[in-house]
Amino acid sequence: MFRTSSTAVHGPGDFTLTSVVLFTLGMYGIAAGSVTSDQTVVAIGVFAFVLFAIGVVWPIVILARVSVEVVAPSDGAVGDEVPLRIIVRGRTDRVEVRVLDPPGRWWRTAVPGVGTMPHLATRRGVFDEVRVQLRTSAPLGVFVRVRQARVRMPEPITLAPRARPAPAVLYPIGDEALMTDPVPASVAGGDTVRAVRPYVPGDPARLVHWATSARLGELVVREHDPPAAQGLALVVDLSGPDEWGDEAASYAAGVGRAALAGGGVVLLATRERQGPVCERVLDARDLGRRLARAVAGPPADAPAGWPQRLVRALDFGTTP
Amino acid sequence: MTPKPHPARPGSPWRPVAVAVVAALGAVGALSAPRLDIPVIAAIVIAGGAGALAVLTLPSFSTRRASVLVLGVGALGALRHAALPSSDSHLIVFWAMATLVALVLVDRADAESTPALVGAPPLAPRVSEATRAAVAIGAVVVLLSVAVVPTLTRELGRQEWLGKIPTLGDVQNSPGSLRASRELDMTNRPRLTDTVVFTVEADRPDFWRGEVFDVWDGVGTWSRSDDSYVTLARSGGAVPLILDSYDVGAQRGEEMRQTFYMESRFSQLIFAAPSAVEVHTDLVLVGRPDGTAGVLRGLGQGAVYTVTSRNLKPTAEVLRAADATALPEPLRTRYAEMPVTSERVRALAESITRDAPTTYDKIRAIESWLGVNTEYSLDAPLSPKGVDVVDHFLFDSKLGWCEQVASSLVVLARSVGIPARLATGFVPGERDGLGGRFVVRENDAHAWTEVFFPGVGWQGFDPTASVPLAGEAPTNGSWFDWARDHVATFALVLGAIVLGVGAAPDFIARARRRVRRRHSWPARALVRLEKLGRASGRPRQPAEGPGEYARVLAAGMGDDRLVAVGAAIDRDAFSEAGTTEAARTGADDVLAELAGRPRRE
Hey, are the CB atoms on B144 and A50 less than 8 Å from each other? Predict the structure, then answer.
C-alpha cells in the first residue's frame, strides 16, 4: 500500500548540522592525511566520512522497508480532532509519522508498532485515503529522510462541516407538501386538546386533566391534536471556489441543525457525485453526512409547496 | 529557535548524551595533555567538563546543536593530535567510539522529545540501540579503514617535501644527535628528552643511521679518517649516494624504502637504514665516502624524504662463511688496524676471542663478555679527563651507555684484526599502532657497531643489552596493514564460524534423530530381521521396506508370522499412532524364536 503509492513532495530529506560537521571533517581528514601520509589522520577522515555515508544511507534503507496503514473512524466533523489508528510495519528501531492535510505534528513509534494519533480535521468531505509522512534520522542524525504516501483506508471517513451558529428558521408546511416528502414525517405531539381519556399507568403526570378528573371522580388525561408541521427545504448550491463552498456548507449545517433542534422537518437538496439529491434528513448526524457528500454543482429542486431556504457558495465569497 | 530541554531532569535522554560527549572530549583532553604540559587527569577534566557544560547549560543553543558543535570541536582536536607523531592510537579509537555513541544518543534523545503515538510500543532501551548501532557502524568503519587507508596514503602520500627553513635559533636548539660533526666526544652526556625528532614509514624496523666514525684517539673522541664530502648530483628523480665498492649488501642486498618525516626544527643529517643507496628529495645533499649523507643548510620541520637502502640481511652461517673471502687491503688499513688503546684492552680482546673460530663468533664472544661484565646506565659517571674512556669502562667503571659499550666493541674487535667502526643514529622507536609509523624521539639516540664481512658488507651489531635490537619489533605495518595482510585468514575463520553456527543446530538435530532411530524399537527389530534374513541367505535389498522384506522372508522361510512382524515394524516406524505393546512383544518373540532355529539346508 505504502510502497507502491508513495510520492515525495519535499525531496528526499534534509541534511543536518551533524552532516556538515562530519562531511567537513571527513574530507579534511582524508585529504590532509593522504597528502602527509599520516594514516591516523586518514583513519579519522574515513571514520567521519563513513559516519556521514551511513548516516545518509541508513535512514533511506529503513524507510524503504517500512509500510504504514491508517484506520479512521467513520464520522467526524471539521474542527474536531479525529483519532487515527496508525499501524507501522517493518523492522527498525523507530520512525516518526504524521498525517498531512493539514500537516499535523510528528509522533514517534517503535517499528513495528500500532498507536493512535489525534488529527485535526480541516476539510469537509468523504475521504477514503490519507496522506501520511514518515521520517527518520536514525541512527546518527545526519540526514532526515522523509517519505510520503497516500494510504487507502479500509473504511472511508465522513467529515461533516462545522455547523455555524444560526437561528432556527421554521416555516409551516402544508399537508400537500408533506405528502411529497420523500420520507414520511413522524410528527410530534402538539398542544391542542382533542379529548380526554382514562388514565393508564405510564401516562405522564403533566397530561392529567385535573379539573375533569375532579368532576368525574377518576383520573383522566388529555389527548392532543398533532401540531401543524414546520420546517424547510434547505437547498445548498456549492458551485464556486472550494473555500466558499465549505463556508456555505458550514452555514447550511448551522441552519439545518437549528431547524432540527426546533422540531422542524428539514429537506436537504444538494448535489452529490452521483447527481442531485433531495431527501429529508433524519438528524444532525445525517445532516452532516449529507453535507459532507455534497459537491459543487446545481442541487436538486425542492418539492413544490416546501418553504425553501437557498444557501449558495457564491454568497460566501464576499461576506464569509 | 528550538527550546532547550532540561537535561538535568531525571530520566532525561540528554544525560547519556552528556556522558558520551564528556568521554569523547576527555579522550581529546588526554591526547592534548603532553602538548600542553599539564597532567592528563587535569586535561581530561577540563576538556570533558567544558563539553558537559556546553551541552547541558548553554542556554542559547538547542541541546542537539550544542552537542554536535562540541563534538565537532572535539574532532578538530583529535585531528590535530592525530597528526602529531606522539599521538596515542588507543585514545583515538576511544574518542571515535565515544563520538559515535554520542551521535547515536543525540539522535535518540531528539526522537524522544517527539510525543509517542498513543498506545504505541515503547522504544528499545537507549543502551541497546546505541550499542547495536555503534557495533554495526564501528565494524563498517574498521573494514573500510583497513581497505582504504593504506591505499590512500600510499597513492596520494607526500614522500618528498622541503619543509620549513630552519632559523638560527632552531639550529642552536637542536640536539647533537641531529647535527653533523667532525668528532664524537665521549666525555659529554647526550641530551635525551621525549621530544620527537622524526617519524619513519617503513615496512620493518631498523637502526636509522646518521654518521659513522672510524678513528679512535685512545682517549675519548671518535673522528673520521676521511672527513671529506662532496655535493651529490641528482640522477633522475633521486640523489644517488656514494657507495662503498666493497659493500656487497649495498649493491645486491634486499631493497628497503623508508620515508622520513621531520618533526625536529633542524637536522643536518640524512638518516637511513644501512646501507642507503639513494635519496628522493629536492634538497641539495652532500655525501661522505663512508656512505652517509647530510644537508648543508639543514632540514627544517615538515621536511619529508624517502631513502632506498639495501642490505643482505645474512644469516649467522653466511657471516661465518665470510671468513673464507679475503679482506680487501684498503678496508684492512682503514678499519682493522690496531687501535690506540691500552695493553690490557688488547689482552682482553685476545682472551675473549681466543676460542672463537670465525669473525662472527669473535664478535658474539665480545658481545657476550660485555653483557656479562658491564652494565648499561644512562646515569653512569663520566670518565675523568684524559683517561681512555674504553679502558676505564672495561676495567674500572664497567658502567656506561651505548657509546661506551659500542666503542668498546669496536676497539676490542680491531684489537684482534676485525674491521669495525662506530655508527650513530637512532633505534627504530615505538611504532604508532594506528598510523604504523615509527616514532623516534631524542632519547632514542643510539650508537652501535658496524663490522665488515667480506662478500657481505657492513653489518650492524648492538652490544648494548638494554636497547632493543633491530629486528625484534614486529615487521608488519600499521593495524590497517596487519589487518589487510590477514584478511584471508579473517574471512576463513569468519566463514567457518558462520558455517558452524548456522549448521550446528541442524547437525545436532540430525544426530539426535539418528541416535533416537538407532535406539528405537523398529530400528532394533529391523536389524534383527535383517540378521535373520542374512542368515537364511536372503539379505534385504536397498529398496525393500520392512514389511515387504518380511513378506519375502515369510515366503522363503515358510513362517507367516514374519508378515505380522514386518507389519508391526512398519506401523511403529511410519504411522503416527505406532504399534501396540502386544504387537511389539509378539514380534520380538517371533524374531527370538526364529533366530534360535537351526538354519535350513
Answer: yes
Candidates B17, B10, B117; CA nearest to B63 is B17
Alpha-carbon distance A266 to A281, whole Å?
6
* Contact: A50, B141; criterion CB under 8 Å: yes
**Residues near A201 by beta carbon (within 8 Å), at least 6 away in sequence:** none
**Chain A residue with minimum CA distance to B76:** A25
In a 10 Å sphere around its CB, with 0-12 CB exposed, 13-18 middle and 19+ buried, how is residue B396 labelled? exposed
Amino acid (one-letter) located at B159: Q
Q: Taking a C-beta distance cutoff of 8 angstroms, is the pair A12, A148 a contact?
A: no
Q: What is the pLDDT of residue B534?
A: 87
Rounded distance between C-alpha atoms, residue B117 and residue A85, angstroms: 9
Q: Are B218 and B340 in contact (CB under 8 A)?
A: yes
Q: Cα(B383)–Cα(B395) distance, rounded to whole angstroms?
A: 12
In the block, residue with C-alpha cell 628497503: B256
**Is the dihedral angle over the CA atoms B489, B493, B494, B495 positive or is it negative?**
positive
- Helix (H/G/I), strand (E/B), else coil: A224: strand
> Hey, which bits of B193-347 come out as E strands?
196-202, 208-213, 215-216, 221-223, 230-231, 239-240, 254-262, 267-270, 276-280, 285-287, 293-299, 304-311
Please tell me whether the overall predicted TM-score, pTM, comes out greater than 0.90 for this model: no
A273 touches chain B (CB under 8 A): no
Please state, in angstroms and rounded to a whole number, the distance separating the CA atoms of residues B203 and B528: 70
At residue A145, the 3 state secondary structure works out as strand
For residue B502, give the nearest of B511, B492, B494 by alpha carbon.
B494
Residue A295 has pLDDT above 50, yes or no: yes
Secondary structure of residue B446 in the 3-state scheme: strand
pLDDT digits (tens, 9 = 90+) for A157-168: 999 999 988 887
Residues of A within 8 A of B76 (CB-CB) are 25
Distance from CA of B377 to the nearest CA of A (A): 35
Residues of B in contact with A36 (CB under 8 A): 83, 157-158, 261
Handedness of CA B466, B471, B472, B478 (dihedral sign): positive
| Residue pLDDT, tens place only, B489-545 | 777 777 777 777 777 777 787 888 777 777 788 888 988 898 888 888 888 888 888
> Omega before B5 cis (within 30°)?
no
The burial of B70, by beta-carbon neighbours within 10 Å (0-12 exposed, 13-18 middle, 19 or more buried), is given as buried
Contact B434 A32 (CB under 8 A): no
Is there a contact between B513 and B576 (Cβ–Cβ < 8 Å)? Answer: no
